[in-house]
């Protein structure tokens, strides 16, 4: 049986592990992380379990007693000056609600044995509930342009491409949004 639930602190190690998998995207340098970098990354992922403007959902297979899918998100702001390149300022300001807030999908992962079963769709639809509860009317995601199956899934559930190009490195990514 598959169960969708809010992630909690007991899921922290799993979320860190999955975020470090580099599953579905290009890694420009495969240099081993230092202890300090691992600790910093762990703290960053921990915020998805404690910060009221972030969150995570997990789908677990209770029969196998293991998590098989997850999504992490944050309530971001188009008008905020981030310390890293987001590409948000390259998107048409008129796409966003007046206060600039939107839901950003930080990470979405489905175990390879459970793909093509609608779990990514289920997780993305759950984010629509989160957006509505926070009075946010837009969800943003991006993926590498070579991930055509991901782009097709997003378009199938109502996302529209709004940008194509590099964001923080030389990899071409497609930014997609869904207006609610």
Map the helices and strands.
Blueprint lengths: L1 E5 L5 H8 L15 H16 L3 E8 L4 E12 L23 E10 L8 H15 L4 E7 L3 H9 L3 E6 L7 E7 L1
Parallel strand pairs: 4-5
Antiparallel strand pairs: 1-2, 2-3, 3-4, 5-7, 6-7
Considering the chains and any ligands shown, give keywords for the structure.
single chain, Aminopeptidase, 4 helices, globular, seven-stranded mixed beta sheet, 180 residues
What proportion strand?
25-35%
Fraction of helical residues:
25-40%
| Strands, total number | 7
CATH architecture: 3-Layer(aba) Sandwich
The Rg value, from CA coordinates, equals: 16 Å
End-to-end distance? 30 Å
Reported for the largest beta sheet, the result is: 7 strands, mixed
CATH class: Alpha Beta
Architecture overview:
It is a single chain. By secondary structure, this protein is α+β, with helices and mostly antiparallel strands. It has one domain: Aminopeptidase. Strands 1-2-3-4-5-7-6 form a 7-stranded mixed sheet, with helices on both faces. Strand 4, helix 3 and strand 5 form a beta-alpha-beta unit. The longest helix is centred in the first third of the chain and has 16 residues. The two termini are 30 Å apart.
